[in-house]
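Example 9 (inverse folding). The structure is encoded as follows.
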């Protein structure tokens, strides 16, 4: 490990070397007395490195709180910034706590700016994982977000407390991502160190990476120490950036930062030559400096990025030249073989022992599409939908596969995995389950009831307990079936201030619990009990509601080599001493999300729903039958005991039909993301429906028309937002929807699909 000191308004060390991720806890402990921190990363870097970082932090006595946002420069905006701030606030971080930026330049900028402004400034630590960030952006204290008008237009100078650069992380970079760092390296050499430039022209950079990063940091530190706030000499660090940023912006960030800077340096050098500020012939025709020994990519004069970095003798060089193509009268950089941006700049990876399949998401970022992780208010224009749509992967099945794969230990293949916020929660928590070195690990379940209830018994079986928390109404949801079991089994528990702490060990035996509260309690035990040394059984004291979800669990267990079975209608036999085995699976499309498109069809839209497995174990497949029933006039009654999530789309189906529709056995809906009996009634009645809510039922009296022309609050409930959007297609006037981003909890691309089908939405301020 080498250390370079930066002497700015705050002096701080930059540690550079291999294997530092696993040592970061000890290094950070030397720099701060704080013990709580937010680990801010993105959807690509998180699965690769966050587990190791959190484990090292916990071993050093810290409590890390991880947060991931969608990777890519396109997400470096005020909305993502606001999401980070909200996470810091919801996690109850104080001024004495700190933030860690784990990732590339986008993460460093975003997390740094959030740290600079949260509670008027908290400490933060840079942990760059790219050559580019390590060589440049992690040092110097510049933080920023992009605006619609341009790149890095809002930001602050805020020096980190510490920089920890593990050069081993560069091994997961693509060649083009590595070239991004090479461009900034060449910039430093050009403005400050001719000898360094000559070294770069012939050296094998990857073999000398620690030395190269150190020299980059030394040059940057010297400039920052002289002119921290860019009033003079620090402007030299912007060589190539003015034009480079413009190129990035005009390409909609299809051109990455380093590539843009490289092009910017070439263009700036040509301009300087024409203006007489540099001697004629400083650059050759390919944009390379006419410097003795300077080689072009490939050594053949081609200089394209596809083979960039290979100089004479096959050695790595750092000055790629750029071919340009002309399209439609404008000049744009040609995409080169292997060029990747955003999610793919690091090799794919995931948490919990899983390996991403060809169709799977590579990370665990936040909502995609129209919302992009930010607060969104929409105006929905009345317009019927048409076309073909494939619903997202089943969230229920994905939870089950992810947990089983993590418990298998060896890598499994999970295809068609979409990172909704609930799935992110399970990823993070299984990563904590695997890597945390704390006696009582802390699990942040976000707003996912499945994650919370599934993992409580697993934590007891594997770790002797855990401390669980979440956001929104999650910790208000009933846990009494577990508490009654814990009293019987001698497990200690405490629910206080939004945290549930459980301590103890599960032992083989009989586990009795009611079946009419939530099937999630049964699923949690089904995952944990096979890990115990002896046989167990689960005995239900009441009829089981949502049995289909338990059957889905049994199917997932069987796929991963674990046996459990029904012995009668209320008893499950669970042999002990079992081990989970790796498997390759594909998550099927989600019937509960497809239900909203069935609702749209019921209201007159011409939609074809593709990709659904007709013989699925998902209980919500009954939407097909209900769709047929509600297409006919007359009074109908639908029992929701086995399909509670269908209440919102069924209510939307019923608002314009001739007759009354009763949705019964729906009391559990009062303890979802919202009190859904109340929120369904309020939202649809605002549109002009006629709905009455009972203690455990809804009665929908069909009306002739929906006037609309109103404002509807989504209640921070993804299903309420989708229900309202579908119902609004039949309104006579536009509908304003507040908090439309909440769909990211389960269906991140909902608004993209809605627009693809012809839905017309317009963003508004909400005022």
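The amino acid assigned to each position is listed next.
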């Amino acid at each position: 490990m080498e250390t370079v000191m930066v002497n700015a308004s705050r002096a701080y060390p930059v540690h550079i070397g291999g294997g530092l991720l696993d040592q970061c806890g000890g290094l950070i402990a030397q720099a701060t007395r704080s013990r709580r921190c937010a680990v801010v990363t993105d959807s690509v870097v998180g699965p690769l490195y966050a587990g190791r970082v959190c484990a090292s932090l916990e071993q050093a006595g810290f409590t890390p709180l991880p947060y991931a946002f969608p990777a890519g420069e396109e997400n470096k905006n005020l909305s993502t910034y606001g999401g980070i701030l909200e996470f810091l606030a919801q996690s109850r971080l104080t001024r004495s706590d700190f933030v860690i930026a784990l990732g590339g330049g986008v993460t460093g900028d975003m997390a740094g700016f959030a740290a600079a402004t949260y509670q008027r400034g908290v400490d933060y630590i840079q942990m760059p994982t790219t050559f580019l960030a390590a060589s440049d952006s992690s040092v110097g204290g510049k933080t920023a977000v992009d605006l619609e008008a341009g790149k890095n237009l809002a930001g602050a100078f805020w020096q980190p407390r510490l920089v920890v650069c593990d050069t081993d992380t560069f091994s997961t970079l693509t060649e083009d991502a590595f070239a991004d760092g090479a461009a900034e390296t060449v910039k430093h050499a050009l403005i400050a160190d001719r000898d360094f430039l000559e070294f770069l022209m012939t050296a094998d950079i990857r073999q000398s990476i620690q030395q190269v990063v150190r020299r980059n940091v030394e040059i940057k530190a010297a400039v920052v120490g002289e002119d921290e706030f860019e009033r003079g000499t620090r402007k030299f660090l912007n060589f190539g950036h003015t034009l480079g940023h413009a190129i990035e912006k005009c390409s909609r960030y299809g051109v990455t930062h380093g590539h843009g800077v490289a092009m910017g340096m070439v263009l700036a050098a040509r301009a300087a030559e024409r203006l007489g500020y540099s001697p004629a012939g400083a650059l050759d025709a390919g944009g390379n400096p006419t410097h003795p020994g300077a080689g072009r990519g490939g050594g053949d004069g081609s200089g394209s990025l596809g083979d960039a970095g290979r100089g004479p003798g096959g050695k790595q060089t750092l000055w790629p030249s750029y071919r340009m193509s002309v399209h439609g009268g404008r000049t744009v950089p040609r995409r080169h073989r292997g060029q990747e941006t955003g999610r793919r700049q690091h090799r794919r990876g995931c948490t919990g022992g899983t390996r991403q399949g060809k169709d799977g998401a590579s990370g665990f970022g936040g909502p995609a599409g129209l919302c992009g992780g930010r607060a969104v208010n929409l105006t929905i224009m009345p317009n019927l939908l048409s076309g073909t749509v494939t619903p997202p992967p089943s969230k229920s099945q994905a939870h089950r596969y992810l947990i089983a794969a993590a418990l298998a230990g060896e890598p499994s293949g999970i295809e068609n995995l979409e990172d909704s916020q609930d799935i992110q929660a399970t990823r993070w928590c299984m990563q904590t389950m695997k890597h945390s070195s704390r006696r009582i690990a802390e699990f942040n379940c976000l707003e996912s009831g499945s994650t919370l209830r599934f993992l409580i018994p697993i934590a007891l079986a594997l770790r002797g307990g855990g401390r669980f928390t979440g956001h929104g109404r999650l910790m208000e949801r009933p846990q009494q079936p577990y508490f009654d079991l814990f009293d019987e089994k001698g497990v200690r528990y405490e629910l206080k201030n939004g945290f549930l702490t459980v301590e103890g060990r599960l032992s083989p035996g009989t586990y009795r619990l009611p079946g009419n509260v939530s099937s999630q309690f049964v699923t949690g035990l089904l995952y944990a009990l096979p890990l115990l040394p002896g046989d167990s059984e689960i005995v239900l004291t009441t009829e089981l509601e949502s049995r289909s979800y338990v059957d889905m669990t049994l199917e997932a267990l069987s796929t991963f080599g674990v046996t459990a079975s029904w012995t009668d209608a209320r008893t499950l036999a669970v042999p002990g001493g079992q081990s989970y085995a790796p498997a390759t699976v594909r998550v099927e499309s989600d019937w509960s999300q497809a239900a909203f498109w069935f609702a749209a069809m019921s209201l007159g839209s011409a939609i074809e729903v593709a990709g659904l497995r007709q013989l699925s174990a998902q209980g919500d497949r009954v939407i097909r039958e209900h769709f047929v029933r509600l297409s006919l006039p007359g009074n109908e009654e639908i029992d929701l005991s086995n399909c509670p999530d269908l209440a919102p789309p069924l209510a939307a189906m019923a608002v314009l039909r001739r007759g009354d529709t009763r949705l019964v056995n729906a009391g559990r809906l009062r303890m979802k993301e919202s009190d859904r009996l109340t929120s369904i009634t309020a939202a649809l009645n605002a549109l002009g429906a006629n709905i009455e809510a009972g203690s455990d039922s809804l009665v929908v009296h069909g009306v002739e028309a929906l006037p609309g022309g109103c404002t509807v609050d989504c209640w921070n409930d993804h299903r309420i937002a989708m229900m309202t959007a579908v119902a609004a297609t039949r309104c006579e006037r536009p509908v304003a929807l507040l908090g439309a981003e909440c769909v990211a909890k389960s269906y991140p691309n909902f608004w993209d699909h809605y627009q693809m089908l012809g839905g017309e939405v317009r963003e508004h301020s909400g005022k």
